[in-house]
Amino acid sequence: MSVTAKMDERILKKMRLDWDNRAKENAQHYVQNEKSEWDRRDFFRSGEINVANEVMTDMVAICGGQRSPLDLRMLEIGCGVGRMTRMLSRIFGHVTGVDISEEMIRQARENTADLPNVDLVLGDGCTLAGLPDASYDFAFSFIVFQHIPAYSVMASYCRDVFRVLKPRGLFKFQVQGYTELTRNDLDTWLGHPVSADEAERLAGESGFAMEREKGAGSQWYWLWFRKV
Fold first, then answer.
1. Can you give the pLDDT at residue 180?
2. What average pLDDT does range 67-86 have in this prediction?
3. How open is the CA angle 206-96-38, to the nearest 5 degrees?
4. What confidence tens digit (pLDDT) does each residue in 190-222 have?
5. Is 90 exceeded by the pLDDT of residue 7?
6. So what's the architecture of 3-226 in CATH?
7. Nearest CA among 222, 225, 179 for reference residue 204
8. Span 39-62, mean pLDDT?
């Protein structure tokens, strides 16, 4: 096993442990830390607002201007307890949510039990193992990659997103772009800051074309990767 692989194994174990512990302590707060205590309705409403702002505004890019979202399969990386998953299921024909935390997935299953078009998968934190090739039209991730503590883990995820997306599929995701942060490969909260150069590298190494970027240098650094 290479040094990088050994380090990634340490990182992934810590990611799973930390997020399981956070989910058991106060899942809603750690999923959306705007509040320490959430009213359930307000919590899911916050997810609806995020979907409206970050997904609905990109429907032309997602659908190609011709298809209905009800005919599309989408992938949500870092679904947590299903805060956005519920709203996404009302827009897309099928939603698969993936999370590294077993406790997050357990709570998400309770929160989406009434949604027949939602599947939830416990992931390994760096791949989409078990999901078939070229099976999704759109992949999305919000307030997730900003917590990933190593570039190598992000790169592994992006390679597998490329694998599971159909040709012309779009991957929209947000990373931590505030590069003044002190880097620590075991900090699963602040994560690894991504520069504009690293974003370009991430796209190229994964096989994607960088279609768009917004917010470089800030916490809300959005990337649009297209499978061409």
1. 85
2. 98
3. 110
4. 999 999 999 999 999 999 999 999 999 999 999
5. no
6. 3-Layer(aba) Sandwich (3.40)
7. 225
8. 97
* 1 pLDDT tier (thresholds 50, 70, 90): very low
Quickly tell me which residue has 């796209």 as its tokens.
203
Structure tokens, 178 = 């505030």
Tokens (6 digits) for 193: 């800051």
- Bridge partners, 225 (sequence order): 171, 210
Cα 204 from Cα 158, distance rounded (Å): 10
Domain boundaries, the chain: 3-226
Given strand 118-122, what is the order of strands in its sheet? 118-122, 94-99, 73-77, 136-141, 165-175, 221-226, 209-214
